[in-house]
Write a structure and sequence with these properties.
This protein is α/β, with parallel strands linked by helices. The chain has a single domain, classed as Flavodoxin domain (Rossmann fold), CATH 3.40.50.360. Helices cover 38% and strands 17% of the residues. The chain contains 7 helices and 5 strands. The protein has helices at 15-29, 69-74, 91-98, 101-110, 114-117, 140-152, 176-194, and strands at 2-7, 33-38, 77-83, 124-130, 156-163. The protein has a 5-stranded parallel beta sheet, with helices on both faces. Helix 1 crosses helix 7. The longest helix is centred in the C-terminal third of the chain and has 19 residues, at 176-194. The protein is globular. The N and C termini lie close together (12 Å).
């Protein structure tokens, strides 16, 4: 199984990077093939709503996102890791999510009936999210965004690891409990793919 890890943070070596590293390393040790994508390194624009993907399911913009689409199609699981910025993902991650409109169009072209569209057949999606506050609703928008991102990829959203109250860069490196939860998530992804 191919597990695609998407690093959504603009900050290299931050908390979401560390947690995603732990999860992916554990998944790889459990037998998954792992591919890593760093949103902060991608040279791409956001979706321009041109409608170019409506007829073909393929994005017409020729930029760094073209190298990512094949991984999104081949992956049996996708794990997005992102900090919370104003209750949502940062711009770099959101641009990648928005560009999955082409994947949504491809899904609509392939699954033409309402019954077909009720099933999600390409795998599972997960999320690691870290936020500075401890607000009760801090992760609601993140999870809604993740759910519809994975809908576009024809995947079910399976939840993940939501970590409140963490702000300092690298703070999770000193928290063995949170790191253990990330490793557990990596093992869970592989186990669910095998079942």
């Amino acid at each position: 199984m191919l597990l695609l890890g998407i690093y959504g943070s603009p900050r290299k070596g931050g908390n979401t990077d560390l947690l995603l590293d732990a999860a992916l390393d554990e998944a790889q040790a459990a037998g998954a093939e792992v591919e890593r994508v760093y949103c902060r390194r991608l040279k791409m624009s956001g979706c321009i709503a041109c409608g170019g993907c409506d007829e073909t399911g393929m994005c017409v913009l020729d930029d760094g996102m073209q190298a990512i689409y094949p991984y999104m199609q081949l992956a049996g699981a996708v794990l997005l890791s992102s900090p919370v910025y104003f209750y949502g993902p940062p711009a770099q991650a959101k641009a990648l999510i928005d560009r999955s409109q082409a994947c949504w169009s491809a899904r609509m072209l392939k699954k033409t009936t309402p019954e077909q569209r009720k099933s999600f057949d390409s795998g599972q999606g997960y999320m690691i999210a870290v936020g500075a506050t401890k607000g009760k609703r801090m992760f609601e928008c993140m999870e809604l965004t993740a759910r519809y991102f994975y809908d576009a990829l024809d995947m079910t959203y399976q939840g993940g690891l939501l970590v409140p109250g963490v702000e300092a860069k690298g703070q999770v490196a000193g928290d063995q409990d949170i790191l253990a939860q990330a490793r557990d998530l990596g093992r869970k992804i592989v186990a669910q793919a095998a079942s």
